[in-house]
Amino acid sequence: MTLPAQRVFLVCPWYGPQTAGGAETNARGLAEALHAAGVAVEVLTTTGRDVFSPGEEPYPAGMQEHAGIPVRRFSLRRDDGAAWQAAHAHLLPGDAGFSAEEQHLTRRLFAQDALFSYIADHRHEGVFLFTPYIWGTTFWGALLAGENAVLLPCLHDEPYASYRTYQYLFRRVRGALMLSLPEQALARQLYDLPLERLPLVGAGVDTSAAGDAARFRERFGLADPFLFYAGRRDRGKQIPTLVEYFAAYQERHPGPLKLVLAGKNPVLVPAPYAGAVVDLGYVAEQDVHDACAAAALVCQPSRYESFSLLLMEAWLHGTPVLVNAACAVTAHHCRESNGGLYFQGYAEFEACLEALLEQPALRQRLGQQGRRYVLANYAWPAVARRVVEALEALGVAVPARPMLR
Amino acid sequence: MDQDPETLAVEDVMAEIRRSLEDRREVGLVQDPDWGRYRGWDGTPEELEQSLRELNTRWNQIYERLALSRSRIPVLGRLWDALRHRVHAEVRSYLDPMIYRQVELNAAVVRALNGLTAGLYGGSLAATLEMLYREVVELRARVRQLEEQGQQGAAGRPAPEEPPS
To answer: CA A301 to CA A324: how far, in whole Å?
Structure first.
């Protein structure tokens, strides 16, 4: 049945220019791209900042506007949501018997009941895009929106993706928009869904963003060549491994090379290597672009990525990347773009780094190939067009979109 | 994506890198670093170092993806495969959440041990304390200098007026 959507509601636990996180950044970019393309978008979110700042509420509750997009904010939840969930147990299958472990993540509701009431009351007024898959706002919100729910899951090959709660969720919604081919393959494998319910849309990057290498070097006092990483710095993203690998590389290849890390959460650097590892802490988006332009290469060691905006930003500025071969998504991007190398274990990390650092021509060529890939596939207008086409393929009649016609 | 003949294929670059690595490995030129050295250890008992190294490499080696080989028997083999998949999936739906929680616990324990040992054995905690101590010394000297300048200035200057309300 075709759903005549009046609006696209984008539901995300956190939303704002200061909000950190890949899925959240993607949500903001998509909302702005759809809005720019003439699609009526409304964001439903909380008053919270982001997952790194629990309890912080920098935004007031109620209706606001960001970049011309209406953003309806709901206060952060103060209770554990148990009473709300008990009252909505009918949304789960009678014989579900989900274990406590499986329900654990769906209990992270974040928003107060008013958000869920709003979704239930307005579910016939448009299509609801929920992101990312893991939180309670998506799980319960999508069940409430029923056939008008579409996921933008940012699915990773991580253990909880196999939970039956998410299998149930993915099978209940109209479809899920996929950021990459490996993510699509994972969703098919985990939830046994047909391809037509998992359209590939990709994520976007602001291709007009400029990077100024000299500005970055001056601002942070960095004259030496460096490897750059920006994002969450924890074991899930393999950052301790990157620090260890880099320390080992430094010892075997003494020189001025530095590892520059940017991100919100703290990172532990062994004292002897503190001089070679520069921790910038949280930096503005422009600083990330500048750093990507200044870096010899960008390293993304994570195994769990559904897209990796960092790779796109590196390539946008013509900088090659080095990724973990164990991550299907980033390794796929490297092979498709021919814009970077991939390592499996320390020996390959060292060999790839040697090859890239000793051959400026190779670095430049890979960087330029990466840049062509980004410009050809991941400019926001193209992503917005694919999202609208994907929604239409899922049976949603997307409202006025003059810029896309 | 169609490939331009001018494109440098990273798969070729990787194949070359791996070939060269294999050649070097064959003649014993590729050796793994001593990982204990890169985690802030200095003069620790060997067994403790070994245990930590193991913990750091094996903390998440529990979870494995479901990969069953296919039966080659026609018709019945497909039924058998479907049944095996069903049973395995059922068992894993119980096991996976437990495994995941164990991995989370392992990660927390390893993180805590790394942090504690780095601090105990001259790692980042000691370095931070040293840096803070130096900063305190410098700031004290600066305060003293400013106090002295203030006293010298006050001796040759009239008392300041009341600020405007």
So the answer is: 5
